[in-house]
Design goal:
The protein is of the alpha+beta class and 154 residues long. 23% of the residues lie in helices and 33% in strands. The chain has three helices and seven strands; from the N terminus they run αβαβββαβββ. Strands 1, 2, 3, 4, 5, 6 and 7 form a seven-stranded mixed beta sheet that branches. A hairpin with a 7-residue loop joins β6 and β7. The protein is elongated.
């Protein structure tokens, strides 16, 4: 495996800790997938919560250094909850708070869940999308960027 794969798997593992038994408001961590959200929801029930991790565009090019390459890995963490127009806000706010609590480290600390070789994590501003246009689910998108240093091969 590569460090890029290790980062994705570590992110999935971390999101799977979002369970009421672990002190979170939801148990969306029991339904975490990797892939493209619009494709995953075609085959995976949303139910009380679904979290999908999908790659996102990166704003910066990799940097070459002596014996290593510094890369930014960007992901969209998309959470969804089935809730009608009357009840979606509280359900989405709970999932949004859980995602942020799960992903953000203590101030000044490196996230312990990131694999060795990762030097940073940035969590962007969440975007909330209410249900509508025949869709009963409400979604929240949390952009994240992870900085990793990959050793050169050869």
């Amino acid at each position: 495996m590569t460090l890029i794969t290790d980062v994705r798997l570590a992110l999935l593992d971390q999101l799977q800790t979002i369970l009421a038994a672990n002190g979170y408001a939801t148990s969306a961590g029991s339904n975490v997938r990797s892939g493209w959200f619009n494709e995953v929801i075609k085959v995976q029930p949303i139910g009380d919560g679904l979290i999908v991790v999908q790659r996102a565009p990166v704003a910066s090019a990799p940097l070459a250094g002596p014996g290593a390459i510094k890369v930014s890995l960007a992901y969209s963490v998309v959470g969804a909850v089935e809730a009608g127009l009357d009840a979606y806000e509280a359900a989405m706010e709970a999932l949004e708070a859980d995602l942020l609590s799960c992903l953000l480290p203590e101030e000044g600390e490196r996230p312990r869940w990131l694999p060795a070789g990762c030097s940073g994590l940035e969590v962007g501003a969440p975007e909330v999308f209410p249900p509508g246009d025949g869709q009963a689910a409400t979604t929240v998108l949390v952009p994240i960027k992870i900085t990793a240093v990959i050793s050169r091969q050869g």
